[in-house]
Amino acid sequence: MAKEEQAVWKADSNNIYERFIEQLDEAISGERELTEGDQDTRYALKLQQERLAEKGARIHCKITPRGHMSDGRKLSRRWKDNHYVSEVAYYTSMWERDITVGSERPHRQKSKMTIYETKTDVIGGEDVGDDTYVCPGCGAPSKIKELLDGCPYCGSKFQMSELYPKITSHYLVRDLSFTNEEMKVYLMKFMIATGIVIFLAMAIGMASRGELFPLGIAKLIVLLLGSAMFGVVMGYFIASITLIGKVTVAAGQTVPMLGTIGAGKRFETLMKKHSPDFSFEYFSGKTVALLKTILFAKDPQELPIYLGGPLDEHFRDVVDIWFLGAMGFKGMKEKDGYLHVTVYAFLENAYVTNGKVKAGKREKILITLVKNLSVPIQYNFSIKKLECPNCHGSFDATKHTSCPYCGSTYRMEDVDWAVESIELD
Questions:
Q1: Sign of dihedral through CA atoms 141, 142, 148, 154?
Q2: Banded pLDDT at 391 (limits 50, 70, 90)
Q3: Between residues 422 and 281, which one has the greater pLDDT?
Q4: How far apart are the first and last CA of the chain?
Q5: 126 alpha-carbon distance from chain centroid
Q6: Whose CA is closest to 383, among 145, 166, 155, 141?
Q7: Is the dihedral of CA 25, 31, 37, 39 positive or negative?
Q8: Burial class (CB in 10 A: 0-12, 13-18, 19+), 342
Q9: Nearest 5°: CA angle at 274, between 268 and 280?
Q10: Spatial distance between the Cα atoms of 267 and 342, rounded to a whole number of angstroms
Q11: Ramachandran angles phi, psi of 280, nearest 5°
Q12: CA 377 to CA 80: how far, in whole Å?
C-alpha cells in the first residue's frame, strides 16, 4: 500500500495499478520501459517521446501518493467480452511535471491529481491460446500459445502472468480536495504571514509615535500577543476567502463541462441496443488513447486508426495531453452498417512553440469515430497485433498499411473503432 509520507511512489509488487504508476513517471521521460502498459499505451508513449525529441524538449515527472485514496479504490463497473474482463481503479496523487526546452529554465507545474487506470485481464478458465499478442521480447505478433512455448521469432518463453493483466488506458483528473494535514499547512502559512505583517505594522506605528524605544518587556509581550492573536483570526479569514476564490475559479473552469453530466449514461443506453455489454468507461478510455496516438504521430494520416484529413497545424506543437475526465456525447448515426459517433473531450494540453513552453491550455476537442456494427467489441484489441481477415496472418498495423503476407488491404473500422475527424470546438 502506498504511504502518504513517501517521497516517491513505491508500489505493492502484487498490485499492477501501483506498478504502472511507479513506472509511469520515469517512462514519460524515457528513463525506463512501461512494462505494465499494453502495446498501444507503449506505442503512444513512444510517439510522445519522438515529438519531444523533435521539439528539443524533455519532460520529467514525479508522482507522489497523497490524499484520502492514495491506496486506491476500484469502481464498481466492469465490462467483458467472451475472453477478457476490464475494470477501473483510481489513486489520488501529487503530480509534478517539468518541461524543459534546450538549456531554458524548466516550466514547472505541481498539481493534485487523481489517476484513473483501466486493467484488462483474461477471464479465469478461458483458453486464449489462439489469440494474438505482441512478443514482449522482439515485438513480433504471435499466438499466445506460441509465446508460452517459445516465440517463433526470438525463442523467448513467457508465462501468462507476463502477458496479462495489462493497463490498457489511463488519464488524470484534477483533485481539488485537501487532506487534514494539507489544510493545516495551508491555514498555518496564512496565519504566520498575517501575524508577521501585523507585527511589522504595529511596530512601525509605535515607532512613528515614539513609543517603540525603549521597548520594555510589557510592550514586547503586548506586541507579540497582539500580532499572534490577530494573525490567527485575520489569517484564517484571509485563507478562507482565498480558498473560496480558488474554488470559485475552479468551478468556473468546469462550467463548460457541465454539459457532459449524464452524457455517458445516455450514450451507453443507446449503444446497448447494438452491444449489450457496452461500457462508456471503456469507450472514453479508448477514445482518449486513440486521441493521444493520433495527436502525437508525425503523420497521423499514415495511421490506420485515423481516416480523416490533415489536422489543425497547432496540434503539431503538442507535447503532453491531460484528459480532464469530462467527455460529452453530441450525436450518432447509422449508415450502411457503420455507426458514426461524435463526442467532445475536455483536455489540458502542453505545447512547445518556437522553443517556448505553453502549458495549462484547456481545449474542447470534437472527435468523430466509426465502427462496423456487425463486429463485436474486442477488449484486448491492439493496432500492434492486427489479424488479416483474408489469410489470418498477424502483423503490426503501425508498420504495414496492408497485410505483409497476402497483400490484402484492411479497414480499421471493420475490426475496431477508428477516428474520422478531430476538430477544435
A1: negative
A2: confident
A3: 422
A4: 41
A5: 30
A6: 141
A7: positive
A8: middle
A9: 25
A10: 10
A11: -70, -30
A12: 9
How far is 87 from 76, CA to CA, in rounded Å? 8
Residue closest to 166 by CA, chosen among 323, 324, 379: 379
pLDDT of residue 259: 58
Please report the sign of the dihedral spanned by the C-alpha atoms of residue 412, residue 278, residue 131, residue 338: negative
Q: Which of 345, 168, 173, 150 is nearest to 250 (CA)?
A: 173
**d(C-alpha 291, C-alpha 347), whole Å:** 11
Which pLDDT belongs to residue 215? 64
How many CA atoms are closer than 13 Å to the CA of 369, on its beta-carbon side?
27
Q: Which pTM was predicted?
A: 0.80
Tell which residue, 364, 371, 363, 347, has the closest CA to residue 419. 371
Q: Count Cβ atoms below 10 Å from residue 55 Cβ, excluding itself.
A: 21
123-137, 251-265, 274-288 — which is least confidently predicted? Answer: 251-265
Phi, psi of 23 (to 5 degrees): -80, -30
> Which one-letter DSSP state was computed for residue 192?
H
**Residue predicted with more confidence, 224 or 89:** 89
Residue 122 — left, alpha, or beta (φ > 0 → left; ψ -120 to 50 → alpha)?
beta
Please count the other Cβ atoms lying within 10 Å of the Cβ belonging to residue 184. Answer: 11
Find cell 513517501 and name the residue: 6
Residue corresponding to grid cell 489543425: 312
In this predicted structure, the answer to whether residue 4 has a pLDDT above a threshold of 60 is: no
